Amino acid sequence: MNKLKCPHCNYVAKYRRTLKRHLLIHTGVRSFSCDICGKLFTRREHVKRHSLV
């Protein structure tokens, strides 16, 4: 299995979907928002964790 390298940093992923998720860090795209405060996140699970606090 080939290792997939991030073109922006030293991150190496085993799967294409993992690299795709990682690349959101570099693009600044934040598609998920908190319904209460409006804070934006790159991943839905980050919104869920934020909501627990």
Automatic annotation (TrEMBL):
Keyword presence, Magnesium: no
Which superkingdom heads the taxonomic lineage of this protein's source? Eukaryota
Give a Pfam family name. Answer: zf-C2H2
In alphabetical order, the GO MF annotations are:
DNA-binding transcription factor activity, RNA polymerase II-specific; RNA polymerase II cis-regulatory region sequence-specific DNA binding; zinc ion binding
For this protein, the parts annotated as crossing the membrane are none
Q: Which InterPro entries match?
A: Znf_C2H2_sf, Znf_C2H2_type, ZnFinger_BTB_dom_contain
The record, for Gene3D superfamilies, names: Classic Zinc Finger (3.30.160.60)
- Tell whether Zinc is among the UniProt keywords: yes
Q: Which UniProt keywords apply?
A: Metal-binding, Repeat, Zinc, Zinc-finger
Residue limits of the C2H2-type domain?
4-31, 32-53
From the UniProt record, list the coiled-coil ranges: none
Q: What is this protein called?
A: ZBT10 protein
Natural source organism:
Columbina picui (Picui ground-dove)
Q: What gene name does this entry carry?
A: Zbtb10_0
